[in-house]
Amino acid sequence: MNTDKDIKQISVSTVIVATELNKGRVKELIQELQDLDAIDNSDAEVIKAATDYL
Predict the structure, then answer these.
(1) Which domain of life is it from (predicted)?
(2) 25 occurs within a structural domain
(3) How confident is the model at residue 1 (pLDDT cuts 50, 70, 90)?
(4) How far apart are CA 41 and CA 4, in angstroms?
(5) How far is CA 35 from CA 3, 6, 15, in A?
C-alpha cells in the first residue's frame, strides 16, 4: 500500500489549497483597507508582492 505516500500527497495538496485561499483573502483585505483609506497604493503593492511570494 502507498498509505504514507498518499498521506504526504494529501498534506501537500492541502497546503497548496490553503495558501491559494489565503492569497485571495489577503487581496480582499487589501481592497477593503484601500476603500477605508487605511493604506495607500504603495502599501498595497508591497503587501501584494509579499503575498505573491507565498
Answers:
(1) Bacteria
(2) yes
(3) low
(4) 46
(5) 48, 44, 30
| 37 domain residue, yes or no | yes
The tally of domains found in the chain comes to 1
Cell of 48: 501584494
In a domain, 10, yes or no: no
Q: What is the pLDDT of residue 53?
A: 79
Q: What is the pLDDT of residues 2-36, one digit of tens each?
A: 788 888 899 999 998 998 899 889 999 999 999 99
Which alpha helices (H) appear in the chain, and where do they start and end?
3-35, 41-53
Half-sphere exposure of 34 (CA within 13 A, CB side): 14
Cell 505516500 -> residue: 5
Report how far residue 53's alpha carbon sits from residue 47's, in angstroms, rounded to the nearest whole number.
Answer: 10
